[in-house]
Amino acid sequence: MIISLDMSSDTPIYVQLRxxxxxxxxxxxxxxxxxxxxxxQMARDAGVNTMTVNKTYQILKAEGFIEIDRxxxxxxxxxxxxxxxxxxxxxxxLELLSAEACLKGMEKDEFLGICEAMFASMHPAxxxx
Length: 129
Hints:
Layout lengths: L12 H14 L12 H8 L3 H13 L3 E4 L3 E4 L7 H20 L4 H13 L3 H5 L1
Antiparallel strand pairs: 1-2
Helix pairs in contact: 1-3, 2-3
């Protein structure tokens, strides 16, 4: 998986890194049980500070996407069920995206079509085995 960060973006680097890793897991580019690069290696590869990568990995761990073992490093976890906190986060983010789409004049069918296409591009079942 190739990480591509936009250093001029308003989105913090650790959030961009987190989002790309989650997307990679969702698309099956990173599979359950696969080990992520060490913090130092990821920082070197991405051209960022190790503290940035460490923060990203800690967020991914808290969100249940990876586990961290001192000996094995960061490992991708199998896809899980949508828990309550995740559902609340999803609803809040979709509410904001829906509001923005409406304000920009997007039709409901177009918005839902984009959502369906994005969801269909994910392959969490393939990442488990």
